[in-house]
Queue: 4 jobs
Job 1
Amino acid sequence: MKKHWIHLSLVLCLLGGSTVSAEQNYNWIEGGTKVSLKQVATVDLDPSLVFLDAENTMKMSRDNNQKPRGNELGSIFSADEKEQWSVIFRYEDTGYIKDADKEKIDPKAILKSYKEGTEEANKERTEGTRIHVTGWDVEPFYDKATHNLTWSMLAEYDDKEQLVNYNVRMLTREGYISAILISDPKNRETDKKQLIEKILPKLTVNAGEKYEEFNASTDKVSQYGLTGLILGGAGLVIAKKVGLIATLLLVGKKFGLVILVALGALGTFIKKLFSRKKRAEADERSAEQENL
């Protein structure tokens, strides 16, 4: 428990939270056992990791002024207090996503669409908050053996501060599991290994939810394929016409939804973490000076 408390102390320090309530309010599950991602999948948790279930993951978000989406499955952290990464799991009930376009994924066209979309959205952003897509960290690729779709996009703010989002989508019978790595550019490659080597190989989709168990006579089918999944559910043709983010904003307004684009969400989240840490340190220094 002490190690978990220390680890969470560091996490909440970045979030501006309290280390006292951390140990009391979150039910950490130690590695070396199997944990459930609700009814969808299980993870054979490595001894070097710790886990929060869906309820605790959403509670942590609320406690740190982040609104949970409601489809969280759980989250995994390192038990090593020196490591600051985390992986958040969510589930999207989109219907069965056909992978017929697996040989037709066009990274150049998708990248162009993302660039056009972000630059269109930048017209309504203030200086310092604009995001510019610069290229692929990892071009989209699909593993037909595991039915996993992976990509990682590079971007930067006006001040050239880099951000990255590393995404893995695991297709299931009725939708997909998303695994989002929260890290920073400096430690991205090291942290990515944790996800690729220690977590994904030990994640098993439950019987009845597996992609190959799709029943064409009874199961719902998604309206988009792999390319549409990379584009956040918006079709490539539509996205190329008006820009990805503009498309998502239009959809959000039409259905009264609040949509947070993954690319900007991760970068903004990381930026907030470190800015809060800096503010907390500055407040502490001010308090110390006042007491002198």
Job 2
Amino acid sequence: MISYLINFAPTNIAMNPSIDRLKDAIEPSRVSLLQHPVYHQIQTLEALQKFAEVHVFAVWDFMSLLKSLQQKLTCVQTPWVPVGSANTRYLINEIVLGEESDVDEFDNRISHFELYQQAMRQMGASTNAIVGLLQALQSGTSIEAAIKQLDCPASIKDFLNFTFKIVSHAPAHVQAAVFTFGREDLIPDMFTRLLEKLVAESPEKVSIFKYYIERHIEVDGGHHSHLALEMVAELCGDDEVKWKEAEHASIEALQIRAKLWDAVTA
């Protein structure tokens, strides 16, 4: 059985036929991603390390997509002026709050990305590539150049280039769809069972990663996914062109994520 992090039936949009049509259109790509062989390969700590060294890029650029949405849908400069609808501002700001300043297992404030880095260090996975990317950006290197100089498989670069193409050129409704349907991690039950096995074998190595996954399912798969669905519905409204654009971008995002998993299996 496959468990979805995204519950597709938040109360206030449960009867939205456009959401239903979008879900139906992307379902084959979602199922294919959930059945990717990468999940079966994570049987050892070493395999989990390799997975994390690739997956961390998805955790990081998820944050970049989120902040791009916040910039489009709210006012993040001075002097302040109201932007868009107050409801949309609430939806994106509420998600940002949780992603940027959640809590670790000891109730210390931390972003999900920083928590993931902690998990990598605990398990012994290398953070050199992602840290190098951040350092390049902090020194003023453009995102395009920073991705190009990464020492990593081409599929990781393609994944990042897709995200920042969306960030740079896509309208808000497309960004919101990619964020909601193409970028929320989907965790099969089988993966969580394998993780329990690894925790039993090496609790001192995997406890933070286990907490990250559990927290991700609890927060992102519950409250945040409902907010994100409502955001997509509000931004697309009754515009069929926007819904079709959202559908196409979501499918492309799921397909590019599958190629990212190919980098792990390779």
Job 3
Amino acid sequence: MKIVLFTHPSFLRYQSMPRFAQMIVNGMHSKGHEIKAWSPKPFFFKWALNKPKLEKWFGYLDQFVVFPIQVKIRLLSTDKNTLFVFADNALGPWVPLVSNRPHVVHCHDFLAQQAALGMLAESKTAKTGTYYQSFIRWGYRQAENFICISKKTQTDLLSFLDKKPKTARVVYNGLNQNFSPADNVQEVRIQLSSQFNIDLSQGFLLHVGGNAFYKNKMGVLEIYDQWNQDFAGQIPLLLIGEVPSEQLKTFASASAATNRIHFISNIDDKQLQLFYQAASVMVFPSLYEGFGWPIVEAMASGTLVITTNEDPMKEVAGHEGFYVAKRPSNTEELLNWKKKAAQVVENVLQLSPEQENLAIAASVLRSKLFSAEEFMDAIEIAYQEILETK
């Protein structure tokens, strides 16, 4: 096959999307296919001089004025049997450029779309953001073929389309790093304790994720604080991801367990793998997700996962996950939610060694459903079928 992969521009500094795109590039290359990546270059963006507002608007010029012109020129010399792949549904505005050629759009989540339409009570979108999401929606609605990372994402996609697509199949994400259980968990904990100057010898609660509202980082802090109150918990909480917001830091400072709450940023992939291996339990009570990478990453690392009792988190963790209800927006219900979630944490931590070993073995086995090899095999089949039925 000849494939052109549309990807996000590198100057937008995304993290997970470049990894996803690179996984496709590497996987298709390894299978003997010819694949090229197309993305905007920073012509106007580089003149923004690190001013966020200018970067935003100059970036739009590069993405939606300069790049479409470049694409139209490239198409003149591109083989007619080329498959055009969009690494993300957020790249919708470029879909019309190749809508009359074989194409497919990878769909990750529609949270920004839902927020812009007022469908998410926890998130409000500014007017300019609403227009931008409408522009994205106008674009991907012109596509005919889609690949969704979960059944939840598939359901959301179909709710936004004007007509039934030719294809809208589900292909679960594959792990794009080598996550596996530690040979000796205690040695890893000692290593991390020394490296980060935190006593992790007795284990720790772990959360991995950014500061986006749907990651529910505040909920993680609330659960941990309640667990400390109700069960006199002593092991630390580590939140790995972006530098915490002022709101998160304020809550952590006011907690009776403040000395055991640690925000950790700017770690490399190897360090992340070690944290997953050494954790006592992963706490991942997201409000919404498209898939939920950390769930599988933790399971593959031999760490049990507590997550939200809703899809796609349930879809990914399956019977091997431990569940809490979605955090309520009603403050009157919040205390009850925190107490019940804290009880789940305590229940997992109090598993007998035999119960824990069985649960870990089941989790590791579950994670193998989301291998990079199975992902690449499935999308290769999907790509070939789209080309054959163009």
Job 4
Amino acid sequence: MGFRCGIVGLPNVGKSTLFNALTETAAAQAANYPFCTIEPNVGNVAVPDDRLQKLAATAGSAKIIETQLAFVDIAGLVRGASKGEGLGNQFLGNIREVDAIVHVLRCFEDGDVTHVEGKVDPIADAETVETELMLADLESLEKRVPNLVKKGQQGDKEAKSAAVVLGRALDLLRDGKPARLTVANDADEERALAQAQLLTGKPVLYVCNVDEGDAAHGNAHSARVFEKAAAEGAQAVVVSAAIEAEIATMPPEERGEFLSELGLTETGLARVIRAGYTLLDLLTFFTVGPKEARAWTVAVGAKAPQAAGEIHTDFERGFIRAETIAYDDYVTLGGESGARDAGKLRSEGKEYVVQDGDVMLFRFNV
């Protein structure tokens, strides 16, 4: 799957409440005091996709299997985390293991819920967390880059390439900018950046946690966050953790009416997933048959053998071809047989770039 999002933020901004709601569990203890989340809780959720239902209905599939998305609820961060304050070292270590950061920001006023900084200011909160991440990256690179430069001067080509690109990242950090703005000029530099596991190199999705009354349109606090996200090339969504928690306890058939009453057309989970897909350049392809209709996730630009490998490594290793039908053609023409008769079933080779919504059947030999 390769899509693991770490939910971070200052204490008491609604991280664990949101995590519980998104995963429809009570695995993370939500409490009104710092560090109530000690170990990172991990929850897998099904990615909602209406296309999967239509494909299953068209093919008469006995089972529907959605693709999965992993959320990791990470302990709250405070100032000084880069120096080990609070649960700093653990916090930073947990972030290194995720693909993207879902940064929950408090955008609601509530005198009954304390704020670690004593005031509601989502921009300041975001900067507090990002500063700690930048300080940790800065310390790491100031030790690493000189060693890479030395190895490069001794003839180590890999170290030389890494020294160049990580040197650019170091310059950005010294200038108060995150490492994700670093430009890699070739595959070697991209690999060096990835291997460095820089905390500020990860894409960020800001989640503005608002009260119920602001869930549909946001408020002045969330508007500022959206401006910040736009300036950074990040993503932002408005979510009410309180509403999501309530939805999680409802029968599925009652959720639509409840959302409609609040002026909403979809859950916060759906918005978070869509923004996350955009952030990480992901797409969905499908496998469909009488036994099951199943959704799979790959990166934009993935070729057919890589998609096959998501199902099983043998499929990628022995890949021959992929019989492919566009989603619209599959549904409109009544399935594989109709698409084949209409000339819409294509035989694609190893260089085929998978498109969002492709219905694929892989031929392989091992």
